[in-house]
Amino acid sequence: MKKTFLFLSLISSVYFYSQDYSGLNKILEKIEQKGKKIKDASSYDIKGKKFVLVEDFEDHGERHILEFNADGTLTMIELIDDKASGKSFSNIFTGDYIRKRNAISVRANFLEGKKIAMPISKNLYLMNASDIWYLKDINNSKRWIENNNLVKKKK
To answer: What top-level branch of life does the organism fall under (predicted)?
Structure first.
């Protein structure tokens, strides 16, 4: 008798929990529909464009510049400003990138012309908000803003 009761309670709990999951799926679908519509950026040309990421830490500041070249190569410049000493350091990485619609995969495997053992790789997603193009890092959600949007244009 106890086994039968336990078995029936197990089956009924699975049935009721599955109803809750379908409700959660409906809520998630509504949220996704209300969310931003991601535009297809296939027509946007990134060749010759520069994107900038600026980070500020307690002891230093970092500026990263990512430049896409016309021949499928890229240049990534890393500028580090030490706040204590006031000195600046730079690293220049080169490599290549692959683009498939909005997704861009970046691999920098040379540091100032010398091959490095562990290449820097980033997976970026090309996005647009209010006519400002930016790259969003898929792994950590950092945003690389196009350089043209950072400079105020004189009219």
So the answer is: Bacteria
Could you identify the residue written with the tokens 């490599």?
A: 95
Of all helices (H) and strands (E), which one includes residue 27? helix 2-34
Q: 49-69: string of b/e by CB count within 10 Å (b at 16+)? A: bbbbbeeeeeebeebbbbbbe
- Within 10 angstroms of residue 104's Cβ, the number of other Cβ atoms is 22
Region of 78 (left: φ > 0; alpha: ψ -120 to 50; beta: rest) is beta
- Taking the model in full, what pTM does it have? 0.68
Q: How far, in Å, CA of 140 to CA of 122, rounded?
A: 10
Relative to beta strand 60-68, strand 50-56 is antiparallel
What is the number of helices (H) and of strands (E) in the chain?
1, 8
Does residue 66 contact residue 119 with C-beta atoms inside 8 Å?
no
d(CA 103, CA 125): 5
Tell me the pLDDT tens digit for each residue of 107-138: 999 998 899 899 989 999 888 876 778 888 88
